[in-house]
Specification:
5 strands
Length: 134
Amino acid sequence: MIKLIVGRKGSGKTKILLDMVKEGVKNTDGNVVFIDNSDQHTFELDHSVRLINAVNYHVTDINSFRGFIAGILAGNYDITEIYVDAILRIVGRDYDKLGEMLGKIDEIAKEVKLVFTVSADLSELPESVTKFIQ
């Protein structure tokens, strides 16, 4: 299941995401992963959360990110939740390709909760992206 937190820069998306991570850690028996393009949240996250800096793995576009998620899931069947901050800073601002990628990730991660922050105005996003907003 994919969920998006959408809003302009500075609208509090990361705070909401971090609160969701804290709640997720309390309520899951599985593993929780947090993906970002920096290490700035290292000390804000519970020690049990696997923090991954996508930049360290040269994840810079839609295709490499989709493969990265597939590899993470293939390597650990105990992952129940993945949180991704600032997806557009990681993969770029092609909203149509973002929608395609989300659809493909949704197909392979049926049992995993994935939450992404998207720094954009809702009116800019195509239906292929907005369908994941809950």
